[in-house]
Amino acid sequence: MPADPPSHEPAGGADRGEPRRTSDTSGRSAETAGAPVYAYPARLWRALDRHRPPGAAATADAWRSPVRGPWLTSVLGVVLLATLPLVIVTGLLDWIAYGPRLGQALPTDVGWLRPPVFDWPTRPAWLFRVTQGLHVTLGIMLVPVVVAKLWSVVPKLFDWPPARSVAQVLERLSLLLLVGGILFEMVTGLLNIQYAYLFGFDFYTAHWYGAWVFTAALVTHVAIKLPRMISALRGPNMARTPVGETTPEPADPDGLVSRRPGPTTMSRRGVLALTGSGVLLLAALTVGQTLDGVLRRTALLLPRGRQPGEGPNGFPVNRTAAAAGVRPADTGAGWRLTVRGGDRTVEVDRGGLLAMTQHTADLPIACVEGWSTEQTWTGVRLRDLAALVGAPERALARVESLERAGLFRQARLHADQVRHPDSLLALRVNGVDLSTDHGYPARVIVPALPGVHCTKWVRSITFEERPDD
């Protein structure tokens, strides 16, 4: 962003001797030298204006970039308005993909914030790969746009008095929730994909409620500012002005234009180009996590998104056997899969599973951190295992892992996921046995299912009737 040159003029004139822009609830501007515009309770706002904190005027005048103004702020706002709803919607879809109807979405009990839900579809197989990839990748790419937008309005943080009407107080509160909400969501999201849980609270719960706070504040802010944004964009296209001809915009009711602009060091076109370059750079360092091939090597921002090795098992691992506490003895020759359905229980070893009809499918696996990959899986269809114990046609499956602790040591699959012809208890991948870190001796792989529910190191599968929703 263009720097804000330090002010060399005395601040006293701006503090008392010079007219100062204000705005009332209708957005009209006035000059305090003659008739300050205050709404109810006017006496309070006047008292605050008379008792200014030390250095208030000097601080306000320190922001001197001449490119700030309604046009630049509105352009950045349009970009966010076009993209943030996609981040919100994909985040909501990802929560639904976790299976709230099966009681395993996180957070589980969301009260009246529970949206309409449905059983997550199994077609197309890449559905979760796209929704989660968009949510994470687009969220990272928007960081420079958010920073530029905040930079364009930062002088407003130093207005004094902080409000001149009750309506403006409410607007400021919504703005506080908007800015705080988006920063909270981005920071916690970035820490989550880096596995850096520096905060002392549950990520899923905090991210869910933070998203609702941000969404409510965004809707409020858009409702208040949309007319101003449209008006600013209908004016001259200021991106075409070169540096030498860049001048400040006319004074605006919101006070975005600097009162004492400094010399021009960058045009508005330059600010947009710098912001766009940051977006493209983050895209180049991120998008490879969702694509197989050479681009995966460029996913430098994602610790699990890159290719960890060569060979058939050389694709990303989210949680290793050691991290899950799965010991070699647990997966050795004594391992048995327990399959239950109604009153019938069958135990089968890995050799017995390999003797059953094998099915091969090319399926992606996608994780909440944003990375995904498509591999070729071979194993026993889940519906064949259901038939082995005489499970009902519409039975769901409860899959349990050898893992002894952790949020995802078990998962439930609804009937469509169990019955899909490509839903497998996978024994092999890319023509070889699964590695221990990829779930040996057996793991679940289901089309469009979040990776954390594709349970690894499976020890039992129970087919059971689904309770009423």
From TrEMBL:
Q: Does the keyword Zinc-finger apply?
A: no
Regions crossing the membrane: 71-98, 133-154, 175-200, 206-224, 270-288
Q: Name one GO molecular function term.
A: oxidoreductase activity
User: Where in this protein does the record put region Disordered?
Assistant: 1-32, 239-262
Please indicate if the UniProt record lists NADP as a keyword: no
Q: Give the source's domain of life in one word.
A: Bacteria
Q: List the InterPro entries hit by this protein, alphabetically.
A: Mopterin_OxRdtase_euk (IPR008335), OxRdtase_Mopterin-bd_dom (IPR000572), OxRdtase_Mopterin-bd_sf (IPR036374)
The record's CDD domains line, in alphabetical order, gives:
SO_family_Moco (cd00321)
**What Gene3D superfamilies does the database record attribute to this sequence?**
Oxidoreductase, molybdopterin-binding domain
- The residue ranges of the Oxidoreductase molybdopterin-binding domain are 331-467
Q: Which UniProt keywords apply?
A: Membrane, Transmembrane, Transmembrane helix
Entry-linked PANTHER family: BLL0505 PROTEIN, PROTEIN-METHIONINE-SULFOXIDE REDUCTASE
Q: What is this protein called?
A: Sulfoxide reductase catalytic subunit YedY
